[in-house]
Amino acid sequence: MAKRGMLIVLSGPSGVGKGTVRKAIFDQGGNDFQYSISMTTRKPREGEVNGEDYYFVSKEEFEHNIETGQMLEYAKYVDNYYGTPLKYVNETLDRGKDVFLEIEVNGALQVRKRLPEGVFVFLTPPDLMKLKQRIINRGTEDMETINKRMTKAVEEIRMMQDYDFAVVNDKVENAVESIKTIIKSERFRVERVFPEYEEMLGDK
Ligand SMILES: Nc1ncnc2c1ncn2[C@@H]1O[C@H](COP(=O)(O)OP(=O)(O)OP(=O)(O)O)[C@@H](O)[C@H]1O
Ligand SMILES: Nc1nc2c(ncn2[C@@H]2O[C@H](COP(=O)(O)O)[C@@H](O)[C@H]2O)c(=O)[nH]1
Known about the structure:
This protein has 8 helices and 9 strands. The protein is α/β, with parallel strands linked by helices. A 5-stranded parallel beta sheet has the order 2-7-1-8-9, sandwiched between helices. Strands 4-3-6-5 form a 4-stranded mixed beta sheet. It is globular, with a radius of gyration of 18 Å. Adenosine-5'-triphosphate binds at residues 14-20, 134, 137-138, 169, 171-172.
């Protein structure tokens, strides 16, 4: 049976740049991460594609998925549900592939309980003003929603200490390099990738 893949969970407040950093890591190549597409009851933004950016579903469908145990984790975040379908994550890890989740903090802490072997990285903004400016610049939310997301952000940043690693997203390229280094080092720690280590340490 293939060795189970590695689970990487990237979390942090809305607008900090999780999606930007994740896309840069994927675009640079040199890895075979599988991105887990989340499910949400939020309405699609302009340009968002069902089955690529999210699975956009009704509240009823989402609640049915919760009740039937189909979610690895889920959270109510600013008036909408967001969650990770369990089957894809399990099947992909079982195939020996690495899975990348990009989710908010309450969901990440649920994942930590179920899959504690994952690598949990918190992406944090240089400061709150810059965070707000990034959400405003993105131009996807109205001011009322931005303010709700900023209130959430303060709660979320307090939970940073529950993560294995924290990375400041000041410059995208620096955050990308830091996360790639973390992943490389965690893979080494978990898998002891050099065969001579196995021999030296007397593993079967
Ligand atoms: N280091 C950075 N410096 C300046 N702007 C940035 C940086 N990283 C991302 N941004 C910009 O900030 C905005 C929010 O980024 P992004 O959508 O990636 O955040 P997110 O954390 O994925 O948000 P959400 O959780 O709401 O999906 C985007 O307009 C992006 O271009
Ligand atoms: N707990 C989960 N949170 C998720 C998931 N997918 C995305 N998110 C987070 O929700 C907020 C808002 O996202 P937006 O697309 O409306 O800006 C943000 O922090 C996302 O990272 C998920 O599956 N589970």
